Amino acid sequence: MTSRLIPEVDFARDGKQTGFIRLFHSTHASAYGYIPIPIVVVKNGEGPTAFFSAGNHGDEYEGQIALTNLVKWLTPEKIKGRVIILPMANFPAAMAGRRVSPIDDVNMNRIFPGDPDGTVTRQIAHYIDSELLPLADLVIDLHSGGSSLMYVPCALARQSDDPALYQKQLAALRAFGAPFTYIQGGAQGQGGDQTLGSGAARRGKIALGTELGGSGTLTPAGLAIAERGLRNLLVHLGILGQEEWVEPPVPTRFLDVRGQDYYIYAPENGLFEPLVELGEEVQPGQPAARIHFPETPWLPPVEIAFKAGGLVMCKRIPARTMRGDCLFHLASDLAGV
Amino acid sequence: MTSRLIPEVDFARDGKQTGFIRLFHSTHASAYGYIPIPIVVVKNGEGPTAFFSAGNHGDEYEGQIALTNLVKWLTPEKIKGRVIILPMANFPAAMAGRRVSPIDDVNMNRIFPGDPDGTVTRQIAHYIDSELLPLADLVIDLHSGGSSLMYVPCALARQSDDPALYQKQLAALRAFGAPFTYIQGGAQGQGGDQTLGSGAARRGKIALGTELGGSGTLTPAGLAIAERGLRNLLVHLGILGQEEWVEPPVPTRFLDVRGQDYYIYAPENGLFEPLVELGEEVQPGQPAARIHFPETPWLPPVEIAFKAGGLVMCKRIPARTMRGDCLFHLASDLAGV
Amino acid sequence: MTSRLIPEVDFARDGKQTGFIRLFHSTHASAYGYIPIPIVVVKNGEGPTAFFSAGNHGDEYEGQIALTNLVKWLTPEKIKGRVIILPMANFPAAMAGRRVSPIDDVNMNRIFPGDPDGTVTRQIAHYIDSELLPLADLVIDLHSGGSSLMYVPCALARQSDDPALYQKQLAALRAFGAPFTYIQGGAQGQGGDQTLGSGAARRGKIALGTELGGSGTLTPAGLAIAERGLRNLLVHLGILGQEEWVEPPVPTRFLDVRGQDYYIYAPENGLFEPLVELGEEVQPGQPAARIHFPETPWLPPVEIAFKAGGLVMCKRIPARTMRGDCLFHLASDLAGV
Amino acid sequence: MTSRLIPEVDFARDGKQTGFIRLFHSTHASAYGYIPIPIVVVKNGEGPTAFFSAGNHGDEYEGQIALTNLVKWLTPEKIKGRVIILPMANFPAAMAGRRVSPIDDVNMNRIFPGDPDGTVTRQIAHYIDSELLPLADLVIDLHSGGSSLMYVPCALARQSDDPALYQKQLAALRAFGAPFTYIQGGAQGQGGDQTLGSGAARRGKIALGTELGGSGTLTPAGLAIAERGLRNLLVHLGILGQEEWVEPPVPTRFLDVRGQDYYIYAPENGLFEPLVELGEEVQPGQPAARIHFPETPWLPPVEIAFKAGGLVMCKRIPARTMRGDCLFHLASDLAGV
Amino acid sequence: MTSRLIPEVDFARDGKQTGFIRLFHSTHASAYGYIPIPIVVVKNGEGPTAFFSAGNHGDEYEGQIALTNLVKWLTPEKIKGRVIILPMANFPAAMAGRRVSPIDDVNMNRIFPGDPDGTVTRQIAHYIDSELLPLADLVIDLHSGGSSLMYVPCALARQSDDPALYQKQLAALRAFGAPFTYIQGGAQGQGGDQTLGSGAARRGKIALGTELGGSGTLTPAGLAIAERGLRNLLVHLGILGQEEWVEPPVPTRFLDVRGQDYYIYAPENGLFEPLVELGEEVQPGQPAARIHFPETPWLPPVEIAFKAGGLVMCKRIPARTMRGDCLFHLASDLAGV
Amino acid sequence: MTSRLIPEVDFARDGKQTGFIRLFHSTHASAYGYIPIPIVVVKNGEGPTAFFSAGNHGDEYEGQIALTNLVKWLTPEKIKGRVIILPMANFPAAMAGRRVSPIDDVNMNRIFPGDPDGTVTRQIAHYIDSELLPLADLVIDLHSGGSSLMYVPCALARQSDDPALYQKQLAALRAFGAPFTYIQGGAQGQGGDQTLGSGAARRGKIALGTELGGSGTLTPAGLAIAERGLRNLLVHLGILGQEEWVEPPVPTRFLDVRGQDYYIYAPENGLFEPLVELGEEVQPGQPAARIHFPETPWLPPVEIAFKAGGLVMCKRIPARTMRGDCLFHLASDLAGV
Fold first, then answer.
1. Pick from C16, C26, C265, E41: CA 20 to 30 A from residue B42's CA?
2. Which residues form a coiled coil (chains A, B, C, D, E, F) (predicted)?
3. What beta strand segments (E) does C60-205 contain?
4. Cβ separation C145–B4 shorter than 8 A
């Protein structure tokens, strides 16, 4: 089925176009109104297409600001090919500063390929999946840890089954040049086959992502990585000239995220005390966290240990926690890269 | 008027007592139920009384966990005098991990001296003010920055008008030994005369506070400062013996928080990009922040500069911001200490 | 201060008048509208005044229906004196079938004497306290256990400090003729000095109440007790003639509700299993209840015992429970009546 | 008690100042933030002070736009004296387009003189009452019917007990020049002594108001009346020169709003069908409205008649109605003006 | 799949039947309850069937009241054939006076053909689509502008691809006799193929609609048009006799609604000032509206111009507006009718 | 499609395993967290599998507690075969004590067979339907009346179309031994083909259910029936040895629930007064209930009569009622058992 969303821009036209994707949403307060999702297209002749997306989760900011800055810097004269920029992909969530949309309470990165007749977030996902992804050669969806997690700054990709495409992923990730890069295997990992990136992969695109910070704040370091990485990707694709290349200070360190044992979850409701820091290397059996119970402060805390060893690449931010919340997420060095 | 809350502990009895302050709250779901606010009293003979409080704001955790640990460590044998510990002062807010109570949406640290016939939060404040504060010689209310702010770890006091009491405040703050300590002048500063600390000051107590981290998370460094500082305060008061003293690694640096020019506020709704870091020394006129508008990404950001110079002791966490939100808060070195 | 509410009835006029008390409430949906609280006055010449109220808690129904039936049965010809009937005292709560008002989330029976400039519920309480209670010789506020409690059917009074008035209370309670009648001492008991009944007592009225069932349902037995009891009260006062008297099947059993030990509270959050039944006589130390934890079903339940002995006059209905919820409430035989 | 709000403008300084009144509101999302209530002061030397307010109810727009336009047009050079302009008095309500504040659900025009330690709306009212009203000679609070009512465009005043002040009110109302002007007697009328206008009257000011349209929309006719009327008031006071006077097309027709019989209320919940139009003259006994019951469409509607005669100056907009909603409001010609 | 809804009426039976369509909705408050959607069927022997629907949007009232009146007037004796009347199609929305259902927040006119296992609104749409529409020869779904829009009173149809059916549409619209009638082309227009009317068109019915007013109020003029038009439609179909025909005062003016350029949308969040009136003829480039910013009243407003010319047939009501809200909607004269 | 839920237990392994089914739910507060649905498997070699479920509706407690107790009592040594226990099937609803899930407002027993990509409740239903039901020979889903209904304690089954399976149902129901057992015919009855039991029946399992009390409370009698019945079922299947059999005090009485005439619904909004009691035998035409209108107490109540005769097996609890609420539900003796 065809999307009901209407873009104000013409993707086939040369030049720089700014406008909105109109998602008609007929409500009590606005019977004929639309939700205005900002979009920018810069095109100059033939060449590859890069599709840059942020605001898939509304409380992740490095990508939103990097793309907002890129919109103002990019001109048709500077490029060859096409760049499509979607800085607030889940616009209602991004305006609210929330992971999920306040309209339908849906997490956009768990519902791809979307639904043209679904609720607002499902319609946006469907538009991206069916109208924007097919236009692109390379797709990067810029994430951070959001309100509940903090990451060491990293880029990422889900390993393609196609070895040639996997090599293209690795090359693009080297160009992006984040301090860390992790590779997910198969359908493993958070979000499974329902993410924007999975949609891009299904269409055979070079599909990349990032986790550039978190805690619902903006980390200046993560923003700098994003800005350099995006330009380098455009150089890597030949859309920008080589003079725009900025060498990353250190080569990216490739990591591997293996099974559920690399994730540490809260066993009880309570207050989470981390016993290790982001970026630390830990051993199996090492104490990871305590859960405290100040509502009955005379009870002892519960202590949890790591089941596997590795690099602490992600930790939970809010101390108030529920059984089942993810507290840490490890990674190990990727063999063979 | 007398509080309607009923404590399960007897403050005059020797020994270690644990229990709840019962706040009867007759609701649709529980007509005769009470809200169980945990409290612990440890007493051994005559001597001074320390009153330690945390969870005044429910999303500030260093204090809650430090007191939960202290409850288990303290025994009557170890002390001389009395320690009263309230780890979740605004219990409904603390259970929800929210700054304000989910029951009445009230910020407990803006309503002292409370009201015995007001809503739940006002009743708690009144109980603390009228029943607990009078028992104490020294009061410390442990705060952190909460969900929206992050602080360099510091202790604080509002300067008493009574020079002798001010000297006692300074001595106690030195004993607490946080890396930074700031002094607020007069009725200035956030919360004015409506905080728990102001209530303690009105009663002539040595009234202290802290800001030990923030972002709604637990910072292990802040927790360590709290745990050392609380024991040192008990030694300082003579409640614990000198053998429990732990020398702070560096003497506290005293700071002064002056007028509104030391606070930087967001001039527009948008995304906040900090241009300086916590702990940095800044100059008047130096760029402080940009506000970006990704909903219209082709518009330039707004840039704001510092009006005064000083140490960046506090910054806003959430990047999504509204006109009027506080972005930074400066301090300068305190003269004459 | 004077109430802002306007009655459509004239309390000094003979005859039967029906109408509404108008509480002007200026909202987004109705700028000049009023909340229509139904009231009926039946008057015939000189004589005592009875004030009958129900719907103070909106989810207690025996009283609401008994008064709705009485409104249709009473005529000026049948009486001497005056009867004022308020079947839905907290009208917004009663229309919603909720203990507390959906407008301001206030429990009307915890805020007497009310406030003429407070929120809606406080304005109603103030009107009743300042305008209706002064008109009455005898006041009965008809309650049941509400959504969270179930009672053995009983009438009740808070013992007046004035021995003569206390005798009048006892006489009126005998006339009402519930199977059980309990007497509260002093300022003890749920609601303290903030109930409608306390307001009536402060004005020297014969102030009575009931607890006629509960569980948010209508118990036909409780309704029958209310209907007989209300007519008997009118006969007892001389407002109705002796021919309307209906002898209760058994004399009322007078009970005494003593201190906090007669109340059993949940020690943990979980599922409540009662181990005794309403109306049962229990001994100190007898098991009262278990709290189960099906979210971790391999953990054992917590068991609680009665601290005092007595008659189980009230038990909690919802099995899902929180620490601090009242599970049972005992009473013992009243000496000296 | 003194207000805690801090204005960014200096009311004593000559020139044109724009800025915000800062109302510090410490929330989960912004611990140290303020609510920015826009204010403009234009002053040139000595002379009278006019205080113009709109947005007291957030869904009334003629005043908000008229003052927004006036802010840009007024310069110190054009005036003698001072004009204080508050275009969004209840800023949170006005931003939300709601009659009452979304923060505390309070109707600001029913709580004067406010409370410096109350909820947000009460603090604003207190600031206006204690800080702004004392500065003024003449106060006009610009209202329209809001979301639930539509008015014939009119100005209004509550008749002062002081005959000299009443004459000043009448003169100012003639200068304002609305098509209709109504005078309220004594403490009668919607809002009683709790409105902004009542606050101004208590301080002996020339206190005026308007009702310039309604239905939550902007009526261009009402806006034109406001813009002409405000300038004429400034000319009338001598703040603007005579050359800015614009003669109203017709002299205002003075009306009198008498007691409760001039208001028609819905007797049942249902759909409201008006049988007369705004501006029509009606007779006692004339059918006013029907209430329909489409949920049981085979039942007949209820018909209501006018109790008094007069001019229909106000009618309810939403057809969906509840018992107690005001459907119409009449007025009659004022004698003796 | 088959609908789970159960009608209390038998559509095949002669006579007048009133009752409810039962939509079983198992909730916390009512485990086995149904939602009672009122329906009336009047039948007398063989003949065509008219299906009249209103309350598809709950805040549109001319249709709801016209059908409520028609229910009481129609008798089997008066007709030949069958009339099916559904005055509150989206019953929960209509009881709430909201465009969309308060149960699932769904706009019923954007989800046809519905879903028998979807949420409540989807189940109603499916019942209408699969059970009621097949019974009808002519379908009219009575709309008005709702809470956010006001229309010049008009009837409408989406032009059928079948020329013979299109001629039947035109004839029926002439019989209905609204002052204006507009024809939508193809799948264009608000609601696309997801409206009740589109469902009727898919089944080859004569599918009509109306827009009879708006603003969430009842316009007596729109009600009169509906009442005359519905009877004329029954005469036109031969269900009522010719003696019930009432000639419209003027023949309907046929209009054409073309593409997106005929719609004017808000470019910013702010207050909407219309610069033209409903029913006015406008030219391309003519100023349409201003958007004001009273939160920063010293900033100039934004002005928007019409891109196309035509008749202003619809305008937005609420002045508070968001980027993307529809402000006006134009139409031009339809050629060839 | 395959479920995305991950069990911590291995259903093929011998022994007693306790753990959680992990339902990953990525929210603002917990980006990578899971919902922990408790599950216990006890297995000992070959033999039949019983699947016991409770908490399908979160406010029905006999089953939740019976299974929580069974978890602790059952050991591999005691059994032959396998028992799978799911005490809180709709975990979020059960933790909230609500019939429907607070996350998606979905009634789990109206959406089988669920959806692996639907909202949380749909994912749980799909997991049960696709992963747990296929493992079982016999399935019992333990219900009670919930917050809105009270039942005489009974077991139940929907009559299988397969006569052999129907005989197995009857035998299992006799073993369960509830005082009453009712048989539903065909697709009739509440929930139709969308219940857990219908899912089990579609897979050819012996599918049973219960209704053991209600009112949102725990009835000790219902709990005792459940505990005895579950063990007897395990004996009946040969999983437990014959020594665990407990003979029911009386043989079950088989009942038949026929069509819609056996259900009594509220005809109006008001207060429900039951005129018969649970367990009573009633006659057609006998008065069943009155609906009272205390908001207009001078109006007479509406009285409703039974249309059919039978045993009153279920009645509504909340007195506040809406048109369409089910008030009673009858049954008659089942022929031929």
1. C265
2. none
3. 81-86, 138-143, 149-151, 154-158, 180-184
4. no
